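All the exercises in this workshop are built on plain-text protein records. A record pairs a protein's sequence with a compact description of its fold. Backbone structure tokens are a discrete shorthand for how the chain folds in space. Once this layout is familiar, the rest of the handout is easier to follow. As an example, a complete record with its sequence and its structure tokens follows.
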Amino acid sequence: MSEKFWHNRQVKDIVVELKSDIHQGLSDSTVEEKLQKFGYNEIKEKQKKTLLEMFLEQFKDFMVIVLLIAAVISFVSHERTDAIIILAIVVLNAILGVVQESRAEKSLEALKKMSAPNAKVLRDAKVKIIPAKELVPGDIIYLEAGDFVPADARLIETANLKVEESALTGESMPVDKNAELIEEEKIPLGDRKNMVASSSVVTYGRGSAIVVATGMSTEVGKIAKMILSGEEVATPLQQKLAQLGKMLGIAALAICALIFGIGVIEGRDIFEMFLTAVSLAVAAIPEGLPAIVTIVLAVGVQRMVKKHAIIRKLPAVETLGSASVICSDKTGTLTQNKMTVVELATSERSWELNGEINDEDKKVVSTILEMASLCNDSKLEKVDNEWDAVGDPTETALVIAAAKLDKPKPQLEEKTPRVSEVPFDSDRKMMTTIHKIEEGYRIITKGAPDVLLDRCINVWTNGDIVNKDEQQIKNIEKANGNMADKALRVLGVAFRDIKTLPEEISTDTVERDLTFIGLIGMIDPPREEAKEAVRLCKRAGIKAVMITGDHKATAVAIARDLGILQNNSEALTGAELDELDQEFLNQNVDKYAVYARVSPEHKVKIVKAWQSKGHIVAMTGDGVNDAPALKSANIGCAMGITGTDVAKGAAHMVLTDDNFATIVEAVREGRGIFENIKKSIQFLLSCNIGEILTLFIAILLNWDSPLLPIHILWVNLVTDSLPALALGVEPVEKDIMNRPPRDPKKSIFADGLAAIIGIQGVMIGGLTLAAFAIGKLVLSTGASPEESVIIGRTMAFVTLGLSQLVHAFNVRTRSSLLKIGFFTNKYMIGAFVISLLLQMSVVTIPVLSDIFKVTMLNSSQWLTVAGLSIAPLILVELGKAVRGN
């Protein structure tokens, strides 16, 4: 069904269609009928998952399913200690997942909060205040300054009405509204001047309107639908771990079948072979990996909190490291969300306020700003020794600029108090105030330069008043054009001194015969730190894209200043974007860097176009209009200070300092965390391959089993876990932001990692088998055959545990450990000491040695174990030296 538009229809036609009456409003009976048809004016929520549902979801992972099967088999096989340990780790991992998961749809709750609680409505010819949720299409509502707009409505009458819509459109300035018909059909939301949208705010004036949409049919409702229907995108790490889990699970089952088959062919006891096969399955799967990855990410989250980034969804930490495109909203994200005076001009010359101004020029600039500050309704205040103001953003910019030049508004008003005024009117595009001065009264008018210039007969130049001539008009128009080309919002200021007040204060009596004094150019300026952040993004191979609801000229000017855009052909408007189908955009999206006057649907379309090219897309934003794209992006970053609750609810990450530069630091952390997780995986898998080879080769050689299932579980879950966690907090490498973004399609084992893991696994397996053989055949003189097996098994168990602890130091860096320093990761030292004590306790404490079926070793056996355990460090360091690392 095609979308229904209301802005291009006459009010009388809308009244007829919605069965309403401008003078009477709706009757109670009609309201009841409409409530039955349209429902309440509120945002619907998605059904939330219960804690039990979230807990059970954690068990869908392939790796976890294989572990559960292994636990059941162990339990049935009377290896109940093994079964309990496996179940404990699986349940612990599920609890961690539930604690970290943040899937409650908080964004929809925030949308509800944004809705106006009450509305002033005409019902049965009486004006009533009712709960906003009871509004229906056809209701006549009344709006005034300070009101939340309770529903989407077509304006009937307005008086100087201004509405702030930045949360919906991204436009930073309040928009002048009127009731005039708009002929065009398909125009952006921000250009529908005769419409008001639910959740926007009236900042000035008043008006009446007829409600045309409520609840989920409003613009905010459409955003809510997009949030509800938006699919969560699996992160690169989630995808890779899922693939790894399946691969290891299938490998474990294959190894089980192979070993079981070999054992049966060799005529071994079937039950014994079944237990051995289960042991191998346990050895093949790094049980602690899911929990270790979760904890490493959680530690990363804590680190990032200190750097002003709150992670709402845990895998988002790693995803940042893959980001190759950052789509950023302009207002409040790349800019300061604060109109600022940056340029002034007279008929003779212009000044930039951030440059040096001599004393003589400062007098001219001060005079212009002094008059603009007096002809102003905003209130100036000082907060923490910084000037701030409350009121319309344009007016606050003027009074703050004047105050910075020692012309604070309260002092000016004390000296020249206001006695009368002609309020701003969107038809006149001007406002006027009248002030008492010693010689009589001063009329000050500010407004649109072209309109104001027509009301002037003189021009103020060098402190003198001279008659306006053609050259001066040309100079002023040129200065106005220059400012407009820079996307500045330009106001003109004029004045006239009179002896006595006219009998009637009106536009005709006071806004005439004025003296033009100057032009003031304002803009919502770029954040200084955003410029540096964009530069760093380029160096890191990340494409920065600006997406905004603001006008194209403004967007292009800001983007050029930031270094996002090089030429105008890289900019598109929402209307131009509508003309492009998704397929064309998918193919050409990398040609564009700026999108202006866009809707929420456009933002999602742009994000999906980048994703179609295989990019990992981060989207930053602060408004309600950003929420669907924040959710659709691989990672959504909301602003914590100026950001709406809706944006925060839909985002994966919240920047607490609203600083775009924080995202660059977050990308750096994300890259470091992924590298560290790779190190943890390398360590765990090389150790597990060592365990598999130990058992596999022993069976092929028809040896007694060098390791029992409980030994493998102990090593995997206890002595391996702490070093793996320590690798997860390894300091981020210094040159990490000089590398291009990681290809999300690239295997986690790319760049030779698979071969390195294999070689290191063979090394650990060989050393463990050597320990078993030496213990059983060489260092167990005088012992019975059964005791010899226990001695060999004890030496193999201790060698496996200790050699893996030593090997953890190898994995810290691909270059020599001597280059980064042995003690630069204090957590690794702590992990080594604690794991060493735990491993030793199993052998030396009688109660534990009985459970683990090991025995106390003598001095020669301990020396052999120590020599074999330290061998990985020596061998790997020699290998690194040969490779030139």
In short: The first helix runs from residue 11 to 17. DSSP finds 35 helices and 26 strands in the chain. The radius of gyration is 36 Å. The CA atoms of residues 378 and 391 lie 4 Å apart.
